[in-house]
Amino acid sequence: EQSIATDQQFAQAHFNRGLLLLKQRNYAEGWVEYDWRWQTPQFVPFKCDKPLWEGEDISDKTILVHSEQGNGDHIMFWRFLPMLADRCKEIIYFGPENLAPLVAEIPGVSQSRIPGALSKDLFDVYCPLMSLPRHLGITLENLPAPEKYVNIPKQVVVSELKGDLKIGLAWAGSATHVNDANRSMPLADMLKVTEGIEAQFYSLQMPIGAEDRELLQQHGVTDLEPELPGYARTAALVEQMDLVISVDTAIAHLAAALGKETWILLGANSDWRWHLEGDESEWYPTARLYRLGEDKKWSSLITSVNADLKNK
d(Cα 71, Cα 76) in Å, to the nearest integer? Predict the structure, then answer.
């Protein structure tokens, strides 16, 4: 705030303030500051000669919503599309190919487009996906949190998984993520969750190196990597799980958005959306949050998760 008082146009300070406000559950002010991200070096604005939607009446207009940031962010913010559909004539969603079949199933999405040439005659206004809550007036009080809002396209076919109790595991996010060192764990730590548990464990991780593949085999964990390409296929496999245990990555968002019981393991300095304390999330009714203790050791957290599994 002192930085902003010194320079009202200091975009990075505004963006950082937005992240802090969101982390403190102050969504009304947080979304406004969060929009300064487009004026910082780490974000590249969508180039378009149509007007940016800022909450005005668009009941007779077609809006293009373009995805941004990581796959988990896309999945998490799809919940706002049905609300937007009530306020416009039509929604065209513009996002990555690996998510296109899933977002096409979201109620209110008329067209799911992948990157490429886009005729400007198709839409009247546009909006970044993660700016929707600002313009829809989203606070903690009216945040939509359906138990399930992602559906699998009927044409998607995957293997039938075996086991009376099927548990999916994901222990690492994208290595290029700015906070990856705090959110990913070694596979050896995650595998401790399987000790003494009568269940069939499945790896939902992709990609996997030769060393980790060998470790999975030694612990009797089925590697699903060959079937995972494309999030619709991944979703069809997750749909068969009884429980998914994952670090803060797209798999956690996908499982929770499918209404699956999801245990999300949070590292030090967890993302704003998980706030500072508590084991529940206002975003996902079926999720349970586990936070690193003061020792900041994944092995200690996994011991606690394993104990809860034994009592399940």
Answer: 9
Using alpha carbons, select from 99, 95, 83, 78 the residue that is nearest to residue 148. Answer: 78
Residues 6+ apart with CB under 8 A from 249: 72, 170, 172, 173, 174, 183, 184
What tokens does 291 get? Answer: 């936070």
- Stretch 222-236: mean pLDDT, rounded? 95
Instruction: Report the alpha-carbon distance of residue 24 to residue 264 in Å, rounded.
Output: 19
For residues 106 and 292, what is the distance between their CA atoms, to the nearest angstrom?
Answer: 34
**Which residues 6+ apart lie within 8 Å of 47 measured at CB?**
none
Give CA–CA dist 161/62, Å, rounded.
Answer: 41
Q: Indicate the length of the chain as a whole number.
A: 312
What is the distance between the alpha carbons of residues 19 and 43, in angstroms, rounded to a whole number? 15
Residue type (1 letter), 77: F
Q: Cα–Cα distances in Å, from 167 out to 159, 226, 300?
A: 15, 18, 20
Tens of pLDDT, residue by residue over 123-146, are 999 999 999 999 999 999 999 999
Q: Residues 3-50: pLDDT tens digits?
A: 999 999 999 999 999 999 999 999 999 999 999 999 999 998 888 889
Model pTM greater than 0.85?
yes
